[in-house]
Amino acid sequence: MRERIWAPLPLPLLLPWLLLPPPLWGGPPDSRRPEREPEPGPLQPFDLLYASGVAAYYGGDYELAVRDLEAALRSHRRLREICARCARHCTARRPLAPPGAGPGAELPFFRALLERARCYRSCQSQRLGGPASRHRASEDVRSDFQRRVPYNYLQRAYIKLNQLDKAVEAAHTFFMANPEHMEMQQNIENYRTMAGVEALQLVDREAKPHLESYSAGVKHYEADDFELAIKYFEQALREYFNEDKECRALCEGPQRFEEYEFLGYKAGLYEAIADHYMQVLVCQHECVRELATRPGRLSPIENFLPLHYDYLQFAYYRVGEYVKALECAKAYLLLHPDDEDVLDNVDFYESLLDDGTDPASVEAREDLAMFVKRHKLESELIRSGAEGLGFSYTEPNYWARYGGRQDENRVPSGVNVEGAEVHGLSMGKKSSPKIDRDLKEGGPLLYENITFVYNSEQLNGTQRVLLDNVLSEEQCRELHSVASSIMLVGDGYRGKTSPHTPNEKFEGATVLKALKFGYEGRVPLKSARLFYDISEKARKIVESYFMLNSTLYFSYTHMVCRTALSGQQDRRNDLSHPIHADNCLLDPEANECWKEPPAYTFRDYSALLYMNDDFEGGEFIFTEMDAKTVTASIKPKCGRMISFSSGGENPHGVKAVTKGQRCAVALWFTLDPLYRELERIQADEVIAILDQEQQGKHELNINPKDEL
């Protein structure tokens, strides 16, 4: 990931800025809403409109904010359309001529190249109403539009203007690309309450057409409405291939050469062309992944494109169109030639053909055959280019299948079709997969005085460890003192004082908040820093003990206290925190855990570091996936830490706190740097600045107290 380069600011100005709340992020536009007619005159740059809209929002001019933000979204969408249209137009009108032979043999090729470049520039300038360079926005602005940040401003502005329906649309559009954004989820719930209805019409203004049609096809398929399923899957494929053309066209835009300093880049003509073309080619090759990825997700829908043909082969069979069923089955085999179920289906479909139809004459669908041919040629060219130009490239498995196909997805040959009970694919929730990394434990604990208590086997589970003396008694007291000063009721729980049970009060605080209070002198800075330091200590221990071969990052850091409410503990039979898993949705009835939003699917490891034991109840428990059978119970005490992998292999909860207050530092970690905790990154910067200040004082031999 490219690092931002900031101009240095004076420390007194920079530190308060770092202590501000983190920015809200938001995903790629592809609206299905009817577009307004383009405004007359040149297309206004979307980054300037965006800046104007944000400035108007913070200035309290919400009508202007809405006008400019909506205009920015239209401009951004229109810019993408123009770039894609010009790319298609010029590719068709200005084909690249192959080089000939003899002197000047390459000139026809370069002449065609120059003609296409001139076509691009002319087309874009004409449609944009000016040079394309006016629309080259900064990386930060483009990232905001990719993450749908403008919709966050819009939903707030529309609420200020009492336009609830438009606020709901904007909020939902933002939330679809940011499913982990709990504040937005709460906003949507509040809007429902304001509207006086449970279910509002939720519209994703940036919905991708091919994904919407695919979901509709799955829905009709599972309802055994195969005619409509065919209609939507075929529509999804048409939209997919159109989206693929646009994605590939947009890849032909400017590329970033991160390995090179531009001014020092001394490559020759052919090296420069090859460098740029390889980046374009890899980008185009990755469109497969891009089109299979839902907004706000990092991982694509597994086996996405082949699944269309898998669904269709069975749906066509169910409506009696055996030739089309055979075409789709053979298409699926282009990407999964060893799939035994579909191979059996091919044999079965061939047995159903009319006597006048030669099975060998029925070929795989042409749309996928052409797609796969190009995809394989690109793969070969990228591998060859990587070897020749000296960069590493590993071809991803774009067609990975989740688990094995179920037997009921196979059409058994030789059965009586009329009497056969054949079930289709199930594309409901996916159960949480097994951990896809090597499971190791028993690595060094790194610090003296830490006591190993139990491992996974002794805790009757997988990837679990219990340690003592991670904190000293003095550190526990100091942290508890900080907690009493900085905690806010409902912090980390969307403002809910009793999010899990009405019988307890929940309070919380983040590392950045602690440092902010320390900087402002509201708590000792040394104590605020202790919160930061012990959480980093815990991270290092977890990374080392579980012998992870990649860096473990903070996903969320939260100091939390839960207090038993007096007068509400008699005959209490609930839990302080219900049984759950940290990165998937636990389904005790099905004994499964579904790894999908709103679960925090990016979390990989969790840890709880306890600060006290002067309370009653509050034991931490592991259970089986039935959420009933307890496999281990742990009594918190000062310095004790329990850590475990975050998936469905480790359902857990907290027994009721019936007296006193139970405090702990809750830590969630991820192996994916894209999901690093934003507040933690800011906290790291604050610590670096404080260290720099302290170093400067030592160099000048100044006692900090002398400044007071």
From TrEMBL:
Protein name: procollagen-proline 3-dioxygenase
Enzyme Commission number(s) of this protein: 1.14.11.7
Secretion signal, residue range per the UniProt entry: 1-26
Cross-referenced InterPro entries: Leprecan_dom, Oxoglu/Fe-dep_dioxygenase_dom, P3H, Pro_4_hyd_alph, Pro_4_hyd_alph_FE2OG_OXY, TPR-like_helical_dom_sf
Alphabetical list of Gene3D superfamilies matching this protein: q2cbj1_9rhob like domain, Tetratricopeptide repeat domain
Gene symbol of the encoding locus: P3H2
Keywords: Dioxygenase, Endoplasmic reticulum, Glycoprotein, Iron, Metal-binding, Oxidoreductase, Repeat, Signal, TPR repeat, Vitamin C
Family membership noted in the UniProt record: Belongs to the leprecan family.
Start and end residues of each Fe2OG dioxygenase domain: 557-671
GO cellular component: endoplasmic reticulum
Transmembrane segments: none
UniProt GO molecular function: iron ion binding; L-ascorbic acid binding; procollagen-proline 3-dioxygenase activity
Co-factor requirement: Fe cation; L-ascorbate
SUPFAM superfamilies: TPR-like
GO process terms (BP): collagen metabolic process
Stored Pfam families: 2OG-FeII_Oxy_3, TPR_leprecan
Catalytic activity: L-prolyl-[collagen] + 2-oxoglutarate + O2 = trans-3-hydroxy-L-prolyl-[collagen] + succinate + CO2
